[in-house]
Write a structure and sequence with these properties.
By secondary structure, the chain is α+β, with helices and mostly antiparallel strands. The chain has one domain. 29% of the residues lie in helices and 32% in strands. It is built from 2 helices and 4 strands, in the order βββαβα. A 4-stranded mixed sheet has the order 3-2-1-4, covered by helices on one side. The radius of gyration is 11 Å and the shape is globular. It starts with 6 loop residues before the first strand and ends with a helix. This is Transposase. It comes from Maribacter ulvicola.
Amino acid sequence: MNKYKETFGVDISKDVFDVHGSKTGYHQYRNNEAGFRKYLKELPKGSLVVMEATGYYHYRLAQFLYKN
């Protein structure tokens, strides 16, 4: 039994981040604060977000999600 409502995998680059949800499928967002807010608004409570920590592009999104 999965304790998370949905699981999201994130692939992040300089300009955009691509998200694939286990139930909702694929979406793409801008890699900036407006994109972060849009994603957060669409993110179901109780979800798990995972991303590979390569380079440094993931830091801002990871910190934003952690704080919110």
